[in-house]
Every structure is written in C-alpha cells, then in structure tokens.
Task: structure prediction
Amino acid sequence: MNAPSPPSATTWRPTHLPTHSFHALAPGPKLLVLGAVHGNEVCGAKAITQLLEDINQSRLTIERGTVTFVPVTNPLAYQLKQRTGDRNLNRNMAPSAIPQDFEDRIANVLCPLLDAHDVLLDLHSFHTGGAPFVMIGPQNNSGTLEPFSQAEAEMQLALCTGAPRIVEGWLDTYARGVSRRAAAPSAAGSARAQTLVTNPNYGVGTTEYMRSRGGYGVTLECGQHDDPLAVEVARRAILQTLALLNMVPLSLEATSTEREILRLVDVTDREHADDRFAREWRSFDAVTAGELIGTRHSGVEVKAPHDGFVVFPNPRAEPGQEWFYMARRRT
Result:
C-alpha cells in the first residue's frame, strides 16, 4: 500500500500550538516570549530557536522563575508565509466560546498562556525599511479604555530591548479608526472582516490583553522582514529581558535612557486596492503639514494633516485595513 501524500500548504491546517517552558528551581517572574504572531515576521522565531538550542546545550541556564517560548504563534500564517491565516491574530485578542476562524482557536490557547505569565516580550518585524522600535502601552491611568498601573516596569523593559525609538498611543489611536470605520463601513472584505474591523476590541492584541490581565509587556519591531540583523536584535532583546528580570546569570548591558518617544495620533485606512503611496515610505519618515503621502483610486490626494512622522506604511494593506499611521513627538 502506498503511503498517503503529505498535506499541501494550501490544505493543511495546524492542530496544535508548540510551546517550550523552562521552570527554574528557584522562584521568580514568569516571562512569555512570542515569535511569528504574524506569519511573515520570522526573526523572533529564528532567535527563539537559537536560544532553545543554547538552553538545551546548557550554554544558557534559567536560574529563577519560568520562561515560556512560542517560536511560531500563528502556525497557519507561518505555513502560508503571509501575515495572517484567516485573520490578523494580533487583533481582537480574547477567548471565544464559539470560535469562528483559525485565529479564534489559537487565541483560546494563547489567552490562558498570557494569563499564566507576568511579563510579555512579543517579537515582530515590519514591511518597509527602518530602524527597530519598541511599542509600549499607556501611562498609568484609571480610565476605561486601557487602565494600567505598571508603566514604570514596562518602560524599563522597553529600554532594555535596546531599540532606539519608543512608540506609544496604539489603542486609543486604533479606537478612533474603528469609530470612523463604523460610521462609514467599507464595501471591501467579507461580512466577518467588516464585523471585526468595526469592533472596538479589534485593537486589542497580545500586549493589550496582557495589560488587561494585570501583567505588562512590549512589542519589539526588530527591523525589516528580510533583514538578517533583525534576528540578532530579537536575540539580544530576549537575553536582556531575562537579565533584567534576574532569571539568568547575565549582566544587564548599560544603555542610555535617552530615547526618541513618539505618540501615534491618527490612522488612515486603505480604501481601494489601487490606492497608491506617493513614494516608498519607511516608518518614521518625517513629513510636513500638507505633504503628499498618497493618492486614492478616485484621484483624491491624501496629505499629512500636520508635521509629524509616517508610521507602519503598508503598501499591501487590504482595503478597509490600516494603510499608515501618523505620529508626533511626545511633548
């Protein structure tokens, strides 16, 4: 009898989420490190794989607490070599009683994992060129959108990653975009997609969920997707996070606390597949008020509303999804 053919990349659906946990014999914090939340952002997966080998060969020892590594957090998107599987895993992060798609099923495993840890390091990369940056949550507050009380610890985590730039203001900026989408829903995309992108909770990803559960965490954007240096940025960040938390016998490297801090202030969606940027924007390219950023399919020009910086420009964004963000320096 002939052996059955292996499933193809287009038909195979992962059935489990591989994780790797190391429990030291001395008590300490619980750290979760995620790679490939988006399937085409592989630097974190590569860096984690290297460190797993170091631990297994006793080149690195975990002496306090617990660290859990998830090299490939979205195995479907990773298999497809694209950002998403059925949808963006790093949006609408919450358990689902009746899962609708693959990412809902992953979230049903991932959310309890986040619940069981204190600190999160989520490793990403970006479409266009530029230097690494790290995203943090809000300052301490008791508001309704994202109440938080661990801003100081989270800033220390952000600084230890070594990223030269810190970005804040994600969730409230995303919420403004959701309000606009809800007021003028796009015809693009499925009914399911429209339901998601007009849901206020759709801006909640891994770090936002972690903060809502009493922990803290950062998203480190390690570099451009294909930049081999991004793997070393991710590897160094993991080691320095372990050192910061006193989980490994490594010294915390001296680093300047001087960082450029930018605040996201607005998001612009791509409305049509023929919307085009005026040039190849990179994250944090400076713009002046009135400068042309792109042109809509209809011919309408999209211009910078104020002096600032273009962030997360995505020339391949799906219609109805984020095209680019605008940021200003924190004052």
Observations:
- Residues 262-331 form a domain with the OB fold (Dihydrolipoamide Acetyltransferase, E2P) fold (CATH 2.40.50.100).
